[in-house]
Write a structure and sequence with these properties.
The chain is α/β, with parallel strands linked by helices and 382 residues long. The chain contains 15 helices and 12 strands. It is globular, with a radius of gyration of 21 Å. It binds pyridoxal-5'-phosphate (PLP).
Length: 382
């Protein structure tokens, strides 16, 4: 790998500034670094305002948001959860930790999100959750998927990439029974590590509040609703620090500006690479008319036998790019625990071998983007 100093276009630069630094210092000076304090409440209020969600719980990661969702919904042994194999290990980890059965459905070749037709093939009377991922910030086909299921089966949206995205005019994360977000360092809006769980149902939100706080009703105590708090349910420790929340408050203030710049870069790539796509050198991502994307990722598909060489050649020019998920059904843990996967997932396998993510972040300058575009033209046409 190249030394960091030779990189002229890094893959990611988090959009942090003086505001976040001053906010972190303020929170330390105030001694506000515990969990569930005023900055956590501010983050949750802001998330509810942005999305219209009834309930928002700030947590340590999207991984924990998904685990918390499944715990609060009572998913357990004997239940099946349908999810894509083209996703991050967190999706399947949270299912396995509940001792439920993961069932992988294929993705569609256009949006690289769960394919409703394949979801239909995977449904059984034991299906308790369908978990679409809004890959790259492009919402999954939720209307078609929702039309396939009946209670007690529910949708849990993995909106890790998708804060600010909407589907048929509705913010993602509020369409299913639960919506899970990530504020990891790589995400559009970040506090380093962090996540949020949005919920629509009061009882589920109450259960999630207990589980997040080690199985206690500390949140009710902090709101002055009970005089003491005690152990009221099973639980874990998913509460994030106010030190992270205070950074997130500043990030959320910048959400629109960040999104606008990402949109501009996304469309810049799409326009400049159209000719290469027309010649068949690459496949461009698509924006369906029913969606508003969060422009989290700009990824292209190239022939699988060229992808890794292309990445190396770009790196030799100082340009960092990244592939994405190794399909979960072919990952070491799946094979060890569950054996060879039986259902065909041809689109997942093709996209997993062909996809390359290009740099996209607010600090990317026009000349850096131009370097990426020029390099792709030179390398893919030769
Ligand atoms: C689709 C998806 N879901 C969930 C996660 C996990 O997010 P976190 O790091 O906040 O746990 C990731 C990580 O990037 C992801 O890509």
């Amino acid at each position: 790998m190249r030394a960091r100093s030779e990189i002229v276009v890094p893959f990611n630069v988090p959009p942090l500034g003086d505001e976040e630094m001053e906010a972190a210092c303020r929170s330390i000076k105030e001694g506000a670094i515990g969990g569930g304090g005023k900055y956590t409440r501010l983050v949750e209020e802001r998330l509810r305002d942005m999305t219209g969600a009834s309930y928002a719980h700030f947590v340590t990661s999207c991984t924990h948001a998904m685990e918390l969702a499944l715990m609060a919904l009572g998913v357990g042994p004997g239940d099946e959860v349908i999810l894509p194999s083209f996703t991050f290990p967190s999706n399947v980890t949270c299912v396995v930790r509940q001792k439920a059965q993961p069932v992988f459905a294929d993705i569609d070749p256009v949006t690289w999100n769960l394919d409703p037709e394949d979801v239909a093939r995977c449904l059984t009377p034991r299906t308790r959750v369908v978990m679409p991922v809004h890959y790259a910030g492009h919402p999954a086909r939720l209307k078609e998927i929702a039309a396939l299921i009946r209670p007690p089966c529910v949708l849990v949206e993995d909106a890790a990439h998708a804060l600010g995205a909407s589907y048929l005019g509705r913010p993602v994360g509020t369409i299913g029974e639960a919506g899970c977000f990530s504020f990891h360092i790589t995400k559009n809006i970040t506090c380093g590590e962090g996540g949020a769980l949005l919920l629509r149902d009061r009882e589920t939100a109450r259960r999630a509040e207990f589980i997040r706080e080690k199985g206690t009703n500390r949140a009710q105590f902090l709101r002055g609703e009970v005089r003491h708090y005690s152990w009221v349910s099973e639980g874990s420790s998913f509460m994030a620090s106010d030190l992270l929340a205070v950074i997130l408050v500043e990030q959320l203030k910048k959400a629109e500006t960040i999104l606008a710049r990402r949109r501009e870069i996304w469309h810049g790539y799409a326009k400049a690479l159209t000719a290469l796509a027309a010649r068949g050198n690459l496949t461009l991502p698509v924006l369906e008319p029913s969606v508003q994307s969060s422009y989290h990722i700009f990824a292209i598909l190239v022939s699988p036998d060229r992808r890794d060489n292309l990445r190396e050649a770009l790196l030799a020019r100082g340009i960092e790019t990244a592939p994405h998920y190794t399909p979960l059904h072919s990952s070491p843990f799946w094979v060890r625990a569950f054996g060879t996967h039986q259902r065909p997932l041809p689109v997942t396998e093709r996209v997993g071998r062909s996809l390359l993510r290009l740099p996209i972040y607010p600090a990317l300058t026009s000349s850096q983007q131009e370097l990426v575009i020029e390099a792709l033209h030179e390398l893919l046409v030769s």
